[in-house]
Amino acid sequence: MTPQVLRELSRVRTTVDRLRTRMTALAAAGTGVALLAAISIAALRSTRPTGLTVGYTDADGRQVVEQQLAAGGGLAPFLAEEGLRPGAVLAAVLLVVPFLALALQALRVGSLALDRQEALLALAGATPGDLRRVRMRRTASSFGRGALLAGPLYLLLWLLLGRAVPAGWRLLPVPQVWLPPAWLAVAGVLTLAGAGIGARSRPQRADPLARARQAELPPRALVAWLSGLGAVVVLLFLLRASSGWDSDVAIAAVLLLEALLLLVCVSTVVALQAARTRGAPERGDDDTDPAGAGHGRRRTSRPIDTAPFANRRLVLRRGSRNAAVTVLAAAQRRGNPRAAGAVAGVLFICGLSFGVEATLVADVLNQPGISDPAFYVGGALLAAVVGAVGVLVALLALALSLTDHLLSARRSVASTAALGAEPRHLLAVQTRALSATAVPATASGTLCAGLLYTLQSIGSSLPRLAATVALVLAVTVLSAGLVALACRLVAVLLAGRLQTAAALDNLRIP
To answer: Are residues 363 and 427 in the same domain?
Structure first.
């Protein structure tokens, strides 16, 4: 395959291609900005005396007193002080996770159409290597464009967070001369990562029976895998809580490892709960799913068997008005369990940050006076902003999953509408499918982290402990309510695509 043919085949042609390319570029740009922020914060050097001294005992048992230094530039205290800086770097690195989830979900938009296109190219004589090179060029170009936008976007973010705010509250340092080379290095790494993702990606098989025959991990092996990951997380938490580590970098690294392991565990559990049955397909197929629920197999069993066990009781109860909406929403999640699992894992981590922040805010409020508002208030605001950005990016990935479902299951949605489902019922199905993934993950993460860190102050007075628990519960309810409202807003914004998918013209045989 010549370079001209390769460039022509990887060119953006349709509206779906433009959506996939733009969302992938946006995810790559967000990843680049987060990495540049982490590099800039990690490269800070403490050279300005603070007037304070720090005393410690060295390895030889001698008492050493040193003057405490901090970085200049009017940065916030948790960025200026060297001992607190790894926490800010950890927050910036964790922002990479939701952007990567968004990129992976964006690459799946319109994958059934790409599969048909590659099948036609294979019939025309294209080899598997040629198809792999087309995918590599397509994803690498999208990642590269987004990575090149990361530099200007970072400068814009610095103007907002590092220039427009007063001294002592700034969240980003002044760009240095090494920023352009770092930007180019990040762009190169992201472009190579995009090429690698394209090389290893496989388009979704259009044959539902082939998808149903995909190999699955045996239940016992899966339980052992999840148990091992959970044991490692608990061991790391106990080790970090019991040992007096002096290295803030080591603590930040362990926290990052714990977050990634929890992400894998939660994503796997939610994906299995969404799939529910052995051999469940990954995506919907508009020719074999008359209920519009996102199934990919020809169904020979009763409709009740397509719902998770938690929803079967609703079907059996004839008086439940939301039974049909609940069943269709659960079956739609079952059509793409990987997306549900990935988004739930990201939202669970964001919920953990909200829960930890709630306990820290409770400790600050229980103090008689705040000596350094820039440290406490600024740190709480930064954690809230990072968590909110992660939630927004995860919800955007969930919206892309819904968009892909409406693209690939048009005939199914049209069949459901032709059978008498009103537009408001179809909208309720989409809202329920989104909230069933997002709300429990966010609420459980917030509640788990809040109660876990509250146990550390179990020896405090009862009113203080009750106030902390009340604040954690309030933050849990607030975060769950805001996420549910955001899911409803996403479904309303995609009502136009839902109306297009429900048009009766989609029932025509192509």
So the answer is: yes
Tell me, yes or no, whether 153 and 251 share the same domain. Answer: no
State the pLDDT at residue 56: 47
Number of structural domains in the chain: 2
75, part of any domain: yes
Q: pLDDT higher for 370 or 273?
A: 273
Output the pLDDT for position 147: 92
Same domain, 249 and 192: no
Q: Hey, what's the torsion of the CAs at 91, 97, 99, 101, to 10 degrees?
A: -160
DSSP 159: I
CA distances from 256 to 367, 374, 485 (A): 29, 25, 30
Pair (126, 254) in one structural domain: no
Q: Which of 61-65, 417-421, 495-499 has the lowest mean pLDDT?
A: 61-65
Nearest to 92 by CA among 32, 34, 27: 34
Domain region containing 250: 245-510
Cα(51)–Cα(468) distance, rounded to whole angstroms?
34
Which has more pLDDT, 77 or 70?
A: 77
pLDDT for the residue numbered 185: 93
- Listed residue (35, 400, 38, 29) closest to 249, CA to CA: 38
DSSP states along 424-470 = HHHHHHHHHHHHHHHHHHHHHHHHHHHHHHHGGGTTS-HHHHHHHHH
